[in-house]
Amino acid sequence: MFEIFIGYDSTEETACYVCAQSIYSHNKNLPMKFIDQRVLRSRGLYTRPPDEKASTEFSLTRFLTPWLSSEKYSVFCDGDFVFRQDIAKVMDEIDPEAAVSCVRHEYTPKQQIKMNDKVQHHYQKKNWSSFMVFNNEKARKVLTPEMVNNAPPSFLHQFGWTQPAGLDRKWNHLVGEYDLNPEAIGIHFTNGGPWHGIKTDHDADWHKYREQLLEDEWVDFYYFPEMPLYEMIIPGVKMGDPRLDDPHAFDHKLVDWGRRRGYTVYETLQEKGQVNPNIGLWENNRWRIEPGQTRWLGMHYLGWKTQKVVVAVTKADQERFEYYKQFQHTKINTKQELADLFIGDTWEGHAGHGYFKKRFRLFFDLWDA
Length: 369
Prior knowledge:
Blueprint lengths: L1 E6 L5 H14 L5 E4 L1 H6 L22 H4 L4 E5 L3 E3 L16 E3 L10 E2 L3 E2 L11 E5 H5 L4 H6 L2 H5 L7 E2 L6 E2 L11 E3 L14 H15 L1 E10 L22 H11 L3 H8 L5 E6 L2 E4 L3 H9 L4 E9 L3 H4 L8 E3 L2 H6 L10 H9 L1 H4 L5
Parallel strand pairs: 1-2, 1-3, 5-9, 10-11, 13-15
Antiparallel strand pairs: 3-8, 4-11, 5-8, 6-7, 12-15, 12-16, 13-14
Helix pairs in contact: 1-7
């Protein structure tokens, strides 16, 4: 029924992920994405020249939220929020007929300088746009990419395009501007937060979700260009399994793979080699290839000795992963490095990507704004 869009700033990545974790920790079923200016530019949706005066990379891209959403409603929040309760509760408080609902702040900023030494500009309706719930159908009628790319920033941020409905201030509690409120749900570190070394009354809230992120969701990725084939095998078989000596034992997998693609796994391996890596994961008390099972079988029956593998390693997996570090590998440090390994298909369409997205949702759904 609705999606969450978080404003992503490459200089504030830690805060953005902690924000996402806070939402995820209360409701694991909500579709959630980052609004990343770089992605929107690559898709031709955002074409304004860079604005050095903007305090964040999503200063204006936030207004593309209704255009990006495929649901009836969408929620946008700055990346420097954390949420102490289920964000879905806000849907009970919006005006469903309004194009947008937000907290209509009335305050004068107490500081002249905000996070990252940015000048604190004061203007009417400041921070109204930092948390918005859109009725997408209505908002899309005015917030077209053409408008977002051409309208004056003040017109967008000061809601010259509509009359917003109001929300309770608990949904956008401005840390350092408002008195401490135990009932606040959306904690907004508008002047900076613990990741800047700034002390606030809500540091404990932020650190709570940061620790959850590190403990429960963090995952490292490693690429092995030549892992011995039998060091990581498919589920359901063990070394010495007689089916591995029978080239027809897994015909159901091999035939189905070829029927869906129009060519056999043997043909593609012999013609192109292993184009995309297999996926290695810890599952059911063993490391296994998943997905990539059919490719692994094809490599086995063709007599190959090594395989390309991307291994996903959670914090809990670190100790049992140590064995594999004896084989040549590199740690994948960025999303783009991981994407570049999947060159045979589009990154979005590759089955390995889909599996990662399902398994490690926080780290993958957010990349697809």
